[in-house]
Predict the structure.
Amino acid sequence: MRAFTLENGCECAQPSRSFTPVDDGAFIEYVADRLDELPGVVAVNLGGSRAQGTHRPDSDWDFAIYYRGSFDPQTLRDTGWPGEVFEVGGWGGGVFNGGARLRIDGRRADVHYRDLNSIDRELAESREGRFSIEPLLFHLVGIPTYLVLAELALSRVLRGRLPRPDYPTALRQRAPGIWRDRADRTFSYAQDYHAPSGRVAECVGLIAQAACYTAHAVLAARAEWITNDKTLLGRAGLRPVDEIIAGGGPDPDSLRVAVERSRALCTRALREAGAS
């Protein structure tokens, strides 16, 4: 074995085992085997567009490792795959508790950490219609804690055994109102405070947030799982908010109209989903 320096500057041992994937299936099996060997890992998942068959040729790969209680990210660094490996909790803590961004045999791959103790807790909470909304970088309105359940429902188990939860009835009944209330208050703030003062960035930002809150309400009312922001507005029928925002001007009257039109769009979507 020879020394190998990762992109994050850590020097690790280069594993003697090498692999040149012939096709996607062989690549998946190779990565699953390596991740399954890490101490503490009890299951491995493939998620994202690759699991759902909606990927593009340049889409990255989303893997998740499931452990109970603790996991040492150094064992992932020791694979020798170049990239950035974060500590547990390195992505802000909460249910989305860290991971790695790697380059594995020339392919972009993320590896997410998932604690099964946390999964058990969120399963129990969701069956009672309870959840929290946690901040997460790059997500306009944060993430619901039931995101980790959505991952299980939509992903492909590669190694081990994992639950595949249905959308809980209590969550479908309670979640839309929580999201809808946030959307309503956000629209009101944009209309009452930012639009009259011509604060374009703040006003438009709140319109985008309110649309995302509404989209979560719509999907919850339909009992549809969602795992990230990328398809959120489109799936909820709220993509026309782009045209509303792009077509407005920077003056207070134009901002007021943009808020009103966006709010009307969201109200229709909620009504059609039975979440109004």
